[in-house]
UniProtKB/TrEMBL annotation:
<dbReference type="Pfam" id="PF13181">
    <property type="entry name" value="TPR_8"/>
</dbReference>
<feature type="repeat" description="TPR">
    <location>
        <begin position="15"/>
        <end position="48"/>
    </location>
</feature>
<dbReference type="InterPro" id="IPR011990">
    <property type="entry name" value="TPR-like_helical_dom_sf"/>
</dbReference>
<keyword id="KW-0802">TPR repeat</keyword>
<protein>
    <recommendedName>
        <fullName>Tetratricopeptide repeat protein</fullName>
    </recommendedName>
</protein>
<dbReference type="InterPro" id="IPR019734">
    <property type="entry name" value="TPR_rpt"/>
</dbReference>
């Protein structure tokens, strides 16, 4: 039997091989595997920007925004070709709450790319940052300590649904702090639940004329019209809220509770899951999140959230489980 000498060519994986494996793992949401393969791709070819860009996207999905930005910064230091990096940086900085940096990179992206893949997202991010900056400006008051005491008092009454007492405090706050916008919206809500429906709605409609994108006006009006059974008006305002994804945890909570209070439980559940409980967990969080979970059929978790809330806020026990009321 004649033997033929065959030369076996060994398979040596290159950067593209690892990159493809990394992308496949990412698409399957196996982020640990994706990270491993993409790091191997970078080791095989450190000068390929695409590998680092994809790794940054994986880090963003994992919430490792600083690590993501480190990779993106390395890319921009080596080449200006990957303009999308500017938007990705802006997005990550926004998640970190560094709005000045987010604004800088969003503007840089739009300056370099008039009609890119992320043009719409960059413009929406800038609008959101502008809104956030306006909200922060409202808090810059000389009498900050006094304001804080009033706010905590009013907030306590509103959280406990004691609208009459809340209204008395908020009325005084309107006189002492007339330029503080949030007080007006809280006053309108207390006014509505004390039975003065027309006046409360008129107040929020007036606010919308001067500030058409006002989040608090839209959430209040959606809630007011839902309570009054006016479906057309309610649908108009709730549709505006559905498209808003705030950066600040308190604003995330306002949207989540508004959706829950108007029986939009599936959407409310998504929004509650976006909230960092350790950062924002007032009484209303436990009241409305537990109800949302119950209505979604997650009974055991609903009871667990309710029990945690009762330990933190004993007055909740007096209310009784919200799904029984």
């Amino acid at each position: 039997m004649q033997q033929t000498n065959k030369k076996i060519i060994p398979f040596i994986p290159d950067g593209d091989f690892y990159y493809v494996r990394g992308v496949e793992a990412f698409q399957k949401r196996k982020f640990d595997n994706a990270t491993k393969w993409l790091k191997k791709a970078i080791e095989a070819n450190p000068n390929e920007p695409l590998y680092r860009c994809q790794l940054s996207v994986v880090y963003t999905e994992l919430g490792l925004y600083y690590k993501a930005n480190q990779e993106l910064t390395i890319v921009l230091q080596s080449t200006e070709e990957y303009v999308d990096c500017y938007y990705l940086l802006a997005n990550n900085y926004a998640h970190l709450g560094l709005l000045t940096e987010a604004k800088k990179y969003a503007l840089a992206y739009l300056n370099k790319e008039n009609d890119g893949d992320f043009t719409e997202e960059a413009e929406e991010l800038l609008q959101l940052i502008e809104f956030e900056e306006e909200e922060e400006d409202d808090w810059e008051l000389e009498d900050e300590d006094e304001l804080l005491i009033y706010q905590e008092t009013a907030f306590h009454f509103m959280e406990n649904l004691d609208w009459n007492k809340a209204l008395a405090v908020l009325n005084e706050m309107l006189i002492l702090f007339p330029d503080h916008k949030v007080i007006r919206h809280e006053y309108a809500q207390a006014l509505f639940f004390e039975g003065q429906h027309e006046e409360a709605i008129a107040m929020e409609l007036t606010h919308l004329e001067s500030e058409p994108s006002g989040l608090y006006s839209h959430t209040n009006l959606a809630l007011f019209y839902y309570e009054l059974g006016k479906k057309t008006e309610y649908n108009h305002y709730i549709s505006k809220i559905r498209n808003v994804y705030p950066i600040h945890e308190q604003q995330k909570l306002i949207i989540a509770t508004t959706l829950a209070r108007t029986a939009q439980y599936a959407e409310a559940n998504k929004r509650f899951r976006m909230i960092k409980q350790k950062t924002v967990s007032p009484l209303s969080y436990f009241r409305w999140y537990s109800l949302t979970l119950y209505e979604m059929g997650n009974i055991s978790k609903a009871q667990s959230i309710w029990e945690i809330g009762c330990k933190k806020y004993p007055q909740l026990e007096n209310e009784g489980q919200p799904w029984r009321n």
